[in-house]
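Lecture notes, part 5. Sequence design as translation. It can be helpful to think of inverse folding as translation between two languages: the language of shapes and the language of residues. The source text, in structure tokens, appears below.
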């Protein structure tokens, strides 16, 4: 039986508004309901989301789970730990595997946390606006303000948490769609391809940050179409 409910988590410093913009349309076209829980506050970000996935699986049965960036890490972590309650994985823009180390996304999150701690949310946004595309600046402005006082702790939690090891992904035998933007240096396409190679039933869907700026659903479509290919 195809899944009827998907739970998708946002990336570091992002929110459920962005998740809905990316995934609502592509999932709705397949008759799949999207649940996009808001980020737990501060350093509860990771543990709170894992507990929420447990709660939603208890309430709705096995889930199609996914996320964007750090949200993809958490979804894969939960699915690998409890694969009997997972029907598939939608992993958009995975940023690393195993310990974060010097992964670009982890370094960016740490730098952002320092900016927020030193300058407050509005001050950090002003200092980080140079060279950032207008659409991304608008997304960060909304999401960071919604995180409020817990933002720096949330960013540090994401930056320091290990992603699933590739060996952990090898045991997750469910259809998986991995979404990548080939021009994204923060979420290298090589990481997406490594995840897909490790997972037993995975395909990669590729898009670009340029496309994402013009059409949020471009990333969702790439990820969902990859998942559909993996379901064959």
């Amino acid at each position: 039986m195809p899944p009827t409910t998907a739970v998708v988590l946002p990336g570091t410093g992002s929110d459920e508004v962005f998740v809905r913009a990316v995934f609502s349309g592509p999932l709705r076209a397949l008759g799949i309901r999207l649940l996009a829980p808001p980020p737990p506050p501060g350093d509860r970000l990771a543990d709170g989301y894992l507990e929420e996935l447990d709660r939603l699986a208890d309430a709705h049965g096995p889930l199609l789970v996914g996320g964007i960036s750090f949200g993809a890490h958490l979804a894969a972590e939960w699915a690998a730990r409890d694969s009997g309650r997972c029907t598939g994985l939608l992993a958009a823009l995975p940023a690393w595997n195993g310990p974060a180390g010097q992964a670009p996304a982890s370094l960016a999150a740490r730098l952002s946390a320092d900016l927020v701690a030193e300058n407050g949310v509005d001050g950090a946004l002003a200092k980080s606006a140079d060279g950032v595309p207008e659409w991304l600046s608008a997304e960060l402005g909304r999401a960071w303000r919604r995180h409020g006082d817990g933002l720096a702790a949330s960013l540090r939690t994401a930056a320091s948490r290990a992603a699933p090891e590739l060996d952990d992904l090898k045991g997750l035998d469910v259809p998986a769609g991995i979404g990548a933007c080939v021009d994204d240096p923060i979420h290298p396409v090589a990481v997406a391809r490594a995840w897909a190679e490790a997972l037993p039933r995975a395909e990669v869907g590729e898009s670009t940050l340029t496309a994402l700026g013009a059409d949020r659903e471009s990333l969702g479509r790439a990820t969902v179409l990859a998942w559909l290919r993996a379901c064959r």
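The translated text above is only one of many valid answers, since several sequences can fold into similar shapes. The longest helix spans residues 104-127.
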